[in-house]
Amino acid sequence: MSSSFAVSPSVRIEFLNPIYNRFLAPSRIYHQPRSKCDMNRRAFALKGIMASGVSVMGSSLTSEPVQGMERLPFKPEGYNFWKWRGRKIHYVVQGEGFPIVLIHGFGASAFHWRYNLPELAKSYKVYAIDLLGFGWSEKAIIEYDAMIWRDQVVDFLKEIVKEPAVLVGNSLGGFTALITAVGLPEQVVGLALLNSAGQFGDTKAKTTNSEETFLQKFILMPLKQIFQRVVLGVLFWQAKQPARIESVLKNVYINNSNVDDYLVESIKMPADDPNAGEVYYRLMTRFMLNQTKYTLDSLLSKLTCPLLLLWGDLDPWVGPAKATRIKEFYPKTTLVNLQAGHCPHDEVPELVNKALMDWLSTLAAEASVKTV
């Protein structure tokens, strides 16, 4: 139930991605019949904020938590920080017991697990980490590659968690969790992917290596880079406006009731960092558009731990067909279909929490049988 992850234009990036939203995202939304789990969307409890230019200020955030559910308090200053390779990395930790590590998607942060962390922490020790360049972690001016985040999570497991754990990731965080599980099998005992980024490899694709001409290298390429920088600079400025963030969120949340001021601010605040624009430019030009090395099938063929797929079937970017294909490719997969969009953990957190807890209990049962 993974998906071949070549971080390419087919990766449907959350939130700060006007290029993909406007030009590359599929136009049709996949509507699946209800799964055998018969998990229905909960009724709308609140109306979403109107998408007409909301001014979001930390001191005036007003929204009520999902009824009957605890929510991680929003702290503008962040929670805990860890020094990794000289860079400041933000993370949240709650609870005691077997460790679970939650990894957010593109443009999001640890705060996106606001309804999952408190509930899971009642039975487990739960960490939520901000990937380098996102959330409250440092906006490092480096060449971003999939291996950067894998190395970050690997070292987080070794230095902070310090024992075998289960990884849970949404979208880009799903790919990061997958590639980490493949690279550190002795410490990742289970993997859960929620509408994971990635694609299966194209066996028919041909790679052509041709020498750059003088014109291409010294004239056309610099002009292309200047054009990209100008265009992406404008798009980034547009993308970090509260109304734009809210609009994108409402496009990928089928149930808009959890698209609130807190969520918008948790995305906008990191985007106001002085280095955020440059990080965005590097991600869009040197990472998202240029990654073809890592595919879901190549990674899944090396995976050894149990896999859980929690899939929002109404996701306008990543349809349920990918989840089905992952399950067919990797037999040790449990698939739970949800009537939700791209971020089911925040849209229908009560269903995601229950499915995760049920699956985690089966992992514990299997582990106890093996030790007998």
Please describe the topology of this protein.
Elements lengths: L17 H7 L55 E5 L2 E8 L4 E5 L13 H4 L4 E5 L16 H16 L3 E6 L1 H12 L4 E7 L19 H26 L2 H11 L8 H11 L4 H13 L7 H5 L6 E6 L7 H10 L3 E6 L5 H4 L1 H23 L1
Parallel strand pairs: 3-4, 3-5, 5-6, 6-7, 7-8
Antiparallel strand pairs: 1-2, 2-4
Helix pairs in contact: 3-4, 5-8
**Average pLDDT value?**
78
Helical coverage, percent range: 25-40%
Poorly predicted runs of 5 or more residues: 1-62, 206-210
- Structure annotation, total helices: 12
What sequence of helices (H) and strands (E) makes up the elements? HEEEHEHEHEHHHHHEHEHH
Trace the largest sheet across and list its strands. 1-2-4-3-5-6-7-8
Number of strands: 8
Oligomeric form: single chain
Strand content: 5-15%
* Structural class category: alpha/beta
**Termini separation (Å)?**
29 Å
